Give the backbone structure.
Amino acid sequence: MLILIAFVPAKFALDSRISDEQILASLAHVEQSLPHMSGVGKGQDELNDLGSAITAAKTTIAGGNSRDEKHVFAFRKQVQTVVKDVKAVMADATVTIPAADRTNLASVPGALTKTTDYAPVWCIAIISLSLGIGTMIGWKRIVLTIGEKIGKEHLNYAQGASAELVAASTIGLSTWFGLPVSTTHVLSSGIAGAMVASNGEKNLNPTTLKAIAMAWVLTLPVSMLLGLGLFLVFHLFV
């Protein structure tokens, strides 16, 4: 966790495999299309914002600061601003875009997003390994809670198989559509549903369900605050 918070954001804020020349090529696609587009009111403001965002990103690259640790976060934000502005222009009905230029613009957000939204393979591997080791060490508490405390009876084979099928299909579909879900939340809900299907709501353990629900509610804000605090501390001193 400390490695990911302290070093990864500074070192891997941008994908080093994508060069500044490739980013400039994507920006050039937008610049070539800008003169052919026109907008009214809000649409024109969006076009102006897009032009300013491109200029800012190109200026950072020209100054040789795009990959510098002190400026990489600012440049990352500039690239993200270009992506946001391109999407806003393409979605605005008040902006007139020739068909050829719309096709030209359509590929830009995806190309630029690959630069900012990615994770190194070793990072994914370490996280997966850490989760696996953590589960191996703390498996007993997890198994007892999931298998014996959600319901008032022990989880049987049919209930376990049903819950696993629900969890696997839900997580698979969520991954396909790019939706963020928690595997623990999905599996816990699947087991609760299997318990209800067997003997109705009276088969659920309200104490455990309240504890799980409270953990769901608190996990996001607490994790966000903890991550923010640790990142600020390490980024300040590292």
User: Anything to note?
Assistant: Residues 185 and 216 are 8 Å apart (CA to CA). The longest strand covers residues 38-39.
